[in-house]
Design brief:
Blueprint lengths: L1 E6 L7 H16 L4 E6 L32 H8 L3 E9 L2 E2 L1 H11 L18 E6 L4 H6 L2 H15 L4 E5 L18 H10 L1 H19 L2
Parallel strand pairs: 1-2, 1-3, 3-5, 5-6
Antiparallel strand pairs: 3-4
Helix pairs in contact: 1-7
The structure holds flavin mononucleotide.
């Protein structure tokens, strides 16, 4: 069995990556034999959907598949065959990161039927979404982030399965706040959150991984 964590952060050792790694540990705690892999989207030169519609051509050779030939194509093919996928993205300007959006376009669009009936057979693997952000839980609701996350998840649900989710707020952004102009943040408070709340977030990510593994067995 194969499971993927998709890292939509350009950073490979920070909050999003750590949470994703924990979720993969959660999978392996249930399925020790399972193969798990984190894909760092910012390591791969790729673009989003180029709107060629080859995936929608009547009697087309590539119907229901992304025809876009690039370094990402073989990786995408593997991900679409996975037994479970966990997506992780920081919030950038009130949305997912650019590369996560590019990924979702390529991951979802070939399977989105432009028809009132199902036209593409594909794997409906269990999914989870982990979002990290600077703002507090209250601010994220006020700013409509949850509505945005719901929107992405409802598209994913329509194509694959209903994702589990984890919202991680007030993340620790810099290793050393004193080196950056960042007086709108209270470093002490962030450090406290890092020590007290982030370990709980990691635990939740681990549980999400366990759930994905269990769902993959059904
Ligand atoms: C370009 C950029 C834009 C950002 N925009 C937002 C934002 O709109 N809302 C927010 O809450 N955090 C925002 N952040 C903060 C990140 O979402 C947050 O620090 C996140 O946890 C980073 O994840 P990472 O440490 O795994 O890279 C932004 C960060 C960057 C670099």
């Amino acid at each position: 069995m194969k499971f993927f964590a998709i890292n939509g952060s350009p950073r490979k050792t920070c909050s999003t990556a750590k949470l994703l790694d924990k979720s993969l540990e959660g999978i392996q705690s249930v399925l020790p034999e399972a193969e798990v892999e984190r894909i760092d989207l910012y390591d791969i030169p790729f673009n989003g959907c180029k709107s060629c519609f080859a995936c929608k051509r009547i009697n087309g050779r590539h119907y229901g598949r992304c025809v876009y030939k690039d370094d990402f194509k073989p990786i995408l093919n593997e991900i679409t065959q996975a037994d479970g996928v966990i997506l992780g993205s920081p919030v950038y300007f009130g949305d997912l990161t650019g590369n996560m959006r590019c990924f979702l376009e390529r991951f979802m669009f070939p399977f989105l039927a432009y028809s009132s009936h199902e036209t593409v057979e594909h794997k409906r693997m269990p999914l989870a979404c982990i979002y990290t952000m600077n703002v507090s839980r209250e601010a994220s609701i006020e700013m409509g982030y949850n509505d945005l996350f719901d929107k992405y998840e409802s598209i994913l649900e329509g194509i694959f399965t209903k994702p589990e989710h984890l919202y991680v707020h007030e993340t620790y952004q810099f290793k050393d706040y004193s080196r950056y102009v960042s007086d709108i943040f209270d470093e002490k408070e962030r450090k406290h959150i890092l020590k007290t709340r982030f370990p709980k977030d990691l635990k939740s990510a681990f549980e999400i991984g366990k759930n994905i593994a269990l769902k993959s067995q059904k």
